[in-house]
Specification:
Elements: H1 2-12, H2 19-22, E1 52-56, H3 63-70, E2 87-90, H4 103-113, H5 118-132, H6 147-160, E3 165-168, H7 177-193, E4 197-201, H8 205-211, E5 214-219, E6 222-228, H9 229-241, E7 249-250, E8 257-264, E9 272-275, E10 280-288, E11 292-303, E12 306-312, E13 318-320, E14 323-331, E15 339-348, E16 355-367, H10 384-387
Parallel strand pairs: 1-4, 1-5, 2-3, 3-4, 9-16
Antiparallel strand pairs: 5-6, 7-16, 8-10, 10-14, 11-12, 11-13, 11-15, 15-16
Helix pairs in contact: 4-5, 4-6, 5-6, 6-7
Length: 391
């Protein structure tokens, strides 16, 4: 608010916006000299009617900010956005809902906000409630809904009311797997069947690929590429591979545990390739600037932006002396199907309040042909006791 007033005062005096000169690039891993950052800059694109566009990028790249600008929740500092048609947007759980109103009342309120007439909303009402699966609680104030119920109803309203443009952020992760599949099916029908424009932000590349025909990749607040979806995903994976392990960490232990190297089966090459018949051994190393009496090193394995499982090096932690450290993890052969996987790494300290975490610290590829005979247990990849080589 204070900066908006400063901008307004500068315009009144015929001066240049003071924040246009000092804003820095939106690179979340580099310490800046200014506390003003360009969330987005120099974006220039056009989306046609009926396009399904997947907006992808690393955390902090500016995806949600772009959707807020397109939804007119936030005004751009400079430049303009031209939109033809009514927009239904789902940016956060329960966007546009009033917590004191019932589900029924919020459906009519959202419809009115979108410019719908009461008769239009009534015609869609039963379909919305059935899709959301909240028949029993439709006359209950939404403040009593769980987050899952909230997002089910919010998505149902946004998708069924007759807007020309549907904007959905990655809030669908709140819902269960069955509802996520239902939502993706509805968005596909909205785009391909009804000719409405869909803008979809997700870290799930499989969903982006299935739903969208165009991909827009954002990187550090800049438009990296807008291309057919397969090319866009390939470019995005290329950005992940180029991540520097020393630049992606957060948490209050990041100055005490400095992660420097990661290798997969002895290879330090980014995106090394390994056969599905081989066990995967991951080693991380670095330097401790202070002694920790109880440190628990952890890694998470991701595929297409979805976390598959997390492993701990030791169950109860161990002492880490000041100086160099290494931590070792193992995954049994045949657990991971052919594909590309991203490694996130980190640690807890002496208490659960002490932590360090780094996404996109390494990438590796599993090669081979998947057959059912390769599976070693019915538990699947989520059962970490089955996966571990360590214990």
């Amino acid at each position: 608010m204070s900066r908006d007033i400063e901008r307004y005062w500068a315009r009144l005096r015929g001066k240049e916006d003071p924040f246009l000169k000092i804003g820095e690039t939106n690179d979340r891993v580099i310490k800046g000299k200014s506390d003003v950052v360009w969330s987005l800059r120099d974006l220039d694109f056009e989306i046609g009617q009926g396009d399904a566009v997947g907006i992808i990028g690393r955390n902090g790249a500016g995806k949600s900010t772009l959707l807020k600008i397109l939804s007119r929740v936030t005004s751009p500092t400079t430049g303009s956005v031209k939109v033809k048609g009514r927009i239904a947007s789902l940016l956060e759980v329960g966007t546009g809902f009033h917590p004191e109103l019932t589900g029924r009342e919020n459906i009519f309120l959202n419809g009115a906000i979108l410019g719908m007439r009461k008769a239009e909303i009534k015609r869609k009402f039963d379909e919305i409630v059935a899709f959301a699966g909240v028949d029993r609680y439709v006359d209950t104030p939404v403040k009593r809904y769980s987050s899952g119920m909230y997002v089910r109803l919010a998505f149902a309203v946004a998708a069924h009311l007759e807007s020309e443009i549907l904007i959905v952020d990655e809030v669908l992760a709140v819902g269960d797997a069955e509802f996520q599949k239902k939502c993706l099916g509805k968005m596909s029908a909205v785009s391909k069947g009804e000719g409405r424009t869909v803008l979809f932000v997700s870290h799930n590349m499989a969903s982006i690929k299935n739903l969208c025909n165009t991909g827009m990749v954002l990187n550090n607040g800049l438009l990296h590429i807008i291309n057919p979806v397969d090319n866009a995903i390939k470019e995005y994976n290329g950005l992940l591979k180029s991540s520097d392990i020393t630049r992606v960490f957060s948490g209050n232990l990041k100055d005490k545990l400095l992660f420097k190297k990661i290798n997969v089966n002895g290879s330090f090459d980014d995106n090394s390739i390994h056969n599905m018949s081989d066990a995967i051994k991951i080693t991380i190393s670095g330097e401790a600037t202070a002694q920790l009496t109880k440190a628990t090193f952890i890694i998470s394995i991701y595929n297409a932006g979805v976390r598959l499982f997390t492993l701990r090096e030791t169950k109860d932690g161990r002492t880490v002396e000041k100086g160099s450290f290494t931590a070792h993890f193992g995954i049994k052969a045949g657990v991971l199907r052919p594909g590309e996987y991203t490694i996130a790494i980190g640690a807890w300290g002496n208490t659960n309040d002490e932590w360090v975490w780094g996404l996109e610290a390494g990438v590796f590829t599993i090669a081979g042909v998947w057959t059912s005979s390769i599976r070693q247990a019915d538990e699947g990849i989520i059962n970490s006791e089955f996966i571990r080589l360590n214990e």
